Amino acid sequence: EVKLVESGGGYVQPGGSLRLSCTASGLSFFMEQMKWVRQAPGKGLEWVASIEYDGRTSYTDSVKGRFTISRDNPNKTVYLDLTSLQNEDTAMYYCAQGPTRGQGTQVTVSS
Question: Most buried residue, 2, 11, 59, 85, by most Cβ within 10 Å?
Answer without folding.
Answer: 85
